[in-house]
Structure formats: C-alpha cells, structure tokens
Amino acid sequence: MEINNPIAIDIPITVADDLYGLSSTKSDIARELPEPDVQILTSGGLQIPVHSSILALVSPIFGNLLDRPRKKRSSDRVIRILGVPRDAVVSFVRFLYSSRCSEEHLEKYGIHLLALSHVYLVPELKQMCKKDLGQRLTTENVVDVLQLARLCDAPDLYLKCMKLVSLHFKAVESTEGWKFLQEHDPWLELEILQFMDETEKRKKKTRRHREAQCLYLQLSEAMECLEHICTEGCTGVGPHDMEPGKKKTPCSKFSTCQGLQLLIRHFATCNKRVNGGCLRCKRMWQLLRLHSSICDRPDSCRVPLCRQFKLKMQQEKRKDDAKWKLLVKKVVAAKTISSLSLPQRKRLN
Predict the structure, then answer these.
(1) Of 50, 141, 177, 313, which has the maximum CB count within 10 A?
(2) pLDDT tens, the chain, 349 aa long
C-alpha cells in the first residue's frame, strides 16, 4: 500500500476541475472537504488526492487498507490501483464521492469499473455496471464480459452472457475472444458447451411437453365432441331416436366434429373390425373406451358402449395399465384447464 517516493504526475485540468464529481450539485460540500490525507496511485503514475474517512465509509476494503500500520510515520499513505486505465480509476473515485457515474464513462470503462467495484466491495456501482454491460452485450464482447462476470461473482450477468453465446454461437465462435478463451480457459469453454447442451435438452423437453399437451387437448375436445354428437346430433350423425340435422355446413362447435362423424359412420359399417384388422375402427374403439374411463354418469350417458365398458371392467376386475391411467388423468386435466381458459359466458352456456 505504501511507497516512499511515488512518481508525481500532475492531474489533468479536466480531472482537477471536478475531481470528486461534486461541483455540479454539491459545491458547498466540495469546499468544506478537509485536506486530502491519502494518495491513490494509478497506472502511469497519476496521483489522486483522496480522504481516508470517505474511502473507509464507502468501502470496507479501503478501510482495512488504511488501518494497517505504516512502516514509517513520516511516509505518505498511498494506495496503488494498477492494471486499469487511470481515467477508469478517476471515474471510480468520483463515484465514491458522488455516487454518480456518467453514461460515457460506463460505456468506456464499464468492464474496469465492474472489476474495481467487486474488488473494493462497492455494491451500488457494481449493480450499475452489471446493468449497463448487460445492455451493451454483443457477439464481439460477450466472451470478455462472461469471463469477468464469472470472476466478479455476477450470476445474472453471467447467465445473460451464456444465453447470448448459446443463441449466436456461430458468430461468437469466430471472434478473437473465443479463440483466446479456447487457448487459455478450457474449463470455461467446457462450461459454455455444457450450458448449450442443457439448453437444447430443455428446449426439446419443452417442445415434447407442448406437443403432448396439444394431444391431450385434442383428445379432450374429441370426448366433448363425441358427447355432442351422441346427445344432440349434428350434421350427418346423431342418436338413433333423433333425425340428423338438416344443415349442410360443417359444425362450428368443435373443429374435430366433421372428422369424428366420418369415423363413427365408418365404425358402424366396417366389416374388418370384427377381426380387429381395421386401424380406423381401433382408433374409434379407443376413443369410446377413453370416454367410458372419463364418464361419471354411465347410466344416463348416450355415448355407445359407455355403460358396457364400465360393466366389463367391473366384472373382470380389470386394472388398467399405468400408461392408460396416466392418459386418462392427463385428458381430464386438459379438459379442466380448457374449461377454465374459456370466457365465463361461454362456460355457462
């Protein structure tokens, strides 16, 4: 922390004019500040006069550094902040005094300010830098920001970088940052590839789930449509004691109504189903069985074979296989979700 004879370089006029960022709104406070008792030494030898009381108040790390005993009482207290541009350090000091940082400085020195705010535990500046860097991410800088986010314990920024790399991997792969990463940080490269693989697996799982939900909703609609046809009758098919509807236009209640009517007509006249050789009849048989498994009023139900299926299962004490039970459960759930998503007036009708 201490140096006896630091190289003194005059502070530029632009820095000296408003070193602490207080001139615009807090000029009285700036004039009341005591004489600086600490120097911050930056790369290039720039010395920034600061106040130990303010540094210790804003950052516990500075407080610990300043509490260390000096080797010589006569020696000046100097804190070295090296390895970052001196203007970035000036901007950092301004934030310590004023809690403000300009958009221009965030754009220019955001990466450096994030590192400084992490090292010296300045959470307000760290949050500001994370937000700004997240908004300025590109395929060119994302690898650099990702490495820094990992080192600076910024999980939200890290995740945002990972998502961008995964989304635009081909473009990122051709950047200098990625080539540097491959040569010097293979573990991070492995993390990125694993993240991409897990993301792809999640997408496939979500896609399968949506497809399954779509199927359950279609089956749920088919069950309602089957009851509609067998209870009210429709354009070409209806109960035996009711004449089919006279209108020739397709049914507007259900999108599956026309296809289900054709399937019922085929089922009623097909000769192959006796020997179990017709796939369309098997499909109809499964729909009737599914309806029977869901129906809670078999005695008054007008869907064919509903009561017979129930009685047969009771007589044989048959236990449906796990897959069939799960299908029934999913279709019932889809029916419930579908009814809840409808407008209230439509549900009442």
Answers:
(1) 50
(2) 444 444 444 444 344 446 666 655 544 555 567 888 899 999 888 899 999 889 999 999 998 988 877 665 545 688 999 999 999 999 999 999 888 898 999 999 999 999 999 999 999 999 999 999 999 999 999 999 999 999 999 999 999 999 999 999 999 999 999 999 999 999 999 999 999 999 999 999 999 999 998 999 889 888 888 888 888 887 777 776 666 555 556 676 777 788 888 888 888 888 776 566 788 888 888 898 888 888 888 778 888 888 888 887 777 665 557 788 888 888 888 888 877 765 544 444 4
DSSP per residue, 35-77: ---EEEEETTSBEEEE-HHHHHHH-HHHHHHHHSPPSSTTSPP
Measuring CA to CA, which residue among 260, 311, 250 is closest to residue 286? 260
Nearest partner of 46 among 4, 21, 80, judged by Cα: 80
Two tokens, residue 134:
């997240």
CA separation, residue 23 to residues 13, 17, 113, 146 (Å): 14, 8, 22, 36
